[in-house]
Fold each of these.
Amino acid sequence: MKQAIVVRTDIGMGKGKTAAQAAHASLTAYENAGPEAQRGWKDGGQKKIVLKVRSEAELQELAEQARRERLPHALIRDAGHTQLDPGTVTAFAVGPAQENLVDRVTGDLKLL
């Protein structure tokens, strides 16, 4: 079991903002998973990987692919209280799910 978290690098988020958006994506995708996937991921050590993209379009494409694969996922939009305009798409997470299924969506991306 694995979860992949993907953040945008083109919008100038600071390190703290990036970490917060990644955390939002991780937790929301976890909440969108079924109890069996949640339990399996937790029991297996909560494996996760953090990756990067350079545009909102790339995150939207990943979200669409996760939808097609019927994988738990989350696309995060910022509330706009600090660094970004309200509604800015900042991050995406897919999983927890079987590692090979997560890799179908994010396997070609580079590490953050």
Amino acid sequence: MKTDQVPEEYEFNSVVFGVNSSPFQAQFVSIKHAEMTKDSYPRAAETVLESTYMDDSMDSVINDEQGIELYNQLSQLWAKAGMYARKWLSNSKTVLQCIPEEDRASQVDLDEGYLPSVKTLGVIWQVDNDIFMFKVNPPAVDFKFTKRNILSKVATLFDPLGFIAPYPIRGKLLLQEMWTAGLDWDDQLDEELVEKSREWFRELDELCCIKIPRCLQLNEDIVLTSLHTFSDASQEAHGSVIYARHEYKSGMISTRFIAAKSRVAPLTSVSIPRLELMAAVLGLRLALSVKHALEVPDDNMTFWSDSMNVLYWIRGRSREYKPFVANRIGEIHTSSHPQQWRHVPTKVNPADLVSRGRTVEQLQSDVIWWNGPEFLQDEEPQWPDTNIQIENVRDTELKCQKKTSDKHTTL
């Protein structure tokens, strides 16, 4: 080694694939370039900043003209950075005809009138019918029923928007049951758990029958868009589901499923009212995320719960409750107004499906899950009443706190 020799310096001229910092560098360059060119290519810059995940851009426009304009702007925006966008795909053949054949997705064949199905974040997009689908292969014949293998198989069912949330939650509950049984990762399951696992796996083949429309609205002029979030909990799980409600100039009203979230209940004992509160907070966070994505005003959000305890707490002062309730009520008060929280009867609460689980067959035909409760098709005066008389009701949490305080005083 020549210690007296001046070190030679080398510098990469492009982002290196596989380096830990490469994903960040690629995203930073894309965002910075979009911000620098947003005045020249406003529509393309919005797509890069708001509708791009890693190296895939996914956006929607109203008509073919806007689709063609978006393609042209995106192509020019990336060309200015020395980048070349490929594998274009659209559910409009008019738009695809304006894109060179070599730049389209490889499966597109306009002469045959065929548009392919592609995976987008783990969900299949069937372009011809503009619907989302799922396809998951069941386990092989020689599958070993261990906790490790079942966790691996359940994790392959990737559903980022929660389209089929009532089905995967059953698999998660099954894993929780294995955990409480004290099984090690590679221990063979007992006969009862094996049969429950087989029953869940058998339904994987039926997932392809579920078809979810991608578009959230009808092809009409919208007067008002509002978000409706439903939450519910049981001893096993809690969750929330959110719908978009559109009012049109023609007087029609439509509702569409947007997203859902589910959580397995903690192993430690938690009361149903507290689990309902956890579901309400989960729904609030989901609604804030959707509100940001769809640019819906805060005043156009409504939250529904079938728990009167939760609605009582929300209409009280958070500092009067114990920490568990106080912290969550504080979060709800920070991001919403108590008057936005309403009561929904349990029998028409779609979030009940998340907290209790459903088979694929039941989920496929369950209208309330895909379109929300029927009352959302009516005008607001006909919605369920939320009749809460705070002065006539003493909160359970406050009672418990008072009893605890009295007990400590006596001691």
Amino acid sequence: MVKLISSRCSIQSVVPESYILPPEQRPGNSVAPPCKTIPVIDLLGDRSDVIQEIIKASHEYGFFQLRNHGVSEELMKDALVVAKEFFDLPVEEKERFYSEDPHQSGCMLKTSIDFPKEKFHFWRDNLRHPSHPLEDHIHRWPENPARYREVFGPYSMEVRSLGLQILELNCEGLGLESGYFGERLSEGQLIVVNYYPPCPDPTLVLGLPKHGDPHLITLLNQGDVPGLQVWKDEQWVTVEPNPNAFVVNINHMLQIISNGKLKSAYHRVLTSSNIDRTTVASFILPSKDSVIEPAKSLVSELSPPLYKSFKRGDFDNIYFSDTHEEKDPLEHFRIRS
């Protein structure tokens, strides 16, 4: 358990060598400008306008922030508070969830991304667990903090409902039939609670490296501490926290299904020397046996398919190995003209 950076950081006055990135990967002292142009979309706006805004933002940025989304401010704050309480627990309370088995599908605590295999580690601990159907998984979640299940049960249900609503708006905007993303394509949901402790020297490390998310869609509750950056126009820009808004980003599989009309944007996470950061991400993902391919109604002679067909389960290993090497996993599935 000394591998957990949250357990080590209080006694670290310098960055351990295994966390120091090669010079070309370090964030350094450069300050990325806050991105004032990443759209903030009001879900209570006119439906046709909201759809157009979501499609435009998803095409140009792969990211947008969503407010007036229906998830209560209290529940969003409670999720962040309880998440932080979990990482503040004594080591012996957390250790029974710790695992380095990449094939484990239940509730598991990890550090970095793939600690045994990666060349350099990342300044993050994370607790992850499936959350849909709730009754199949909640009994495996932590019982300590005492409110963990009480908070994350309704939180995961409300965020899933919101995610499915966003996917349905994408259906409409792309011209797909209603319910296209129902059933197997949105069967799974994963909650990932991230903790980034203060770092002795944030210029040498990253909380997370440059990557795109592998599934359909991510809804991030990032609280009020900045750290998330998006790669846009050949530079990093900071996604400034927006009170009570979700950061929504398009994932690789949604880019494929949309035949490139929507964009899965690369992003990374910085650390801070004087403040910790806790976030809660919710991913909606297809079942492992789902066939992922460009939607047939989006393919024509004038708009040929850009990607090959594959099963989601076959994508996972390629995604993780390529992300470690900072390669684009979508390159394996592109159709060359």
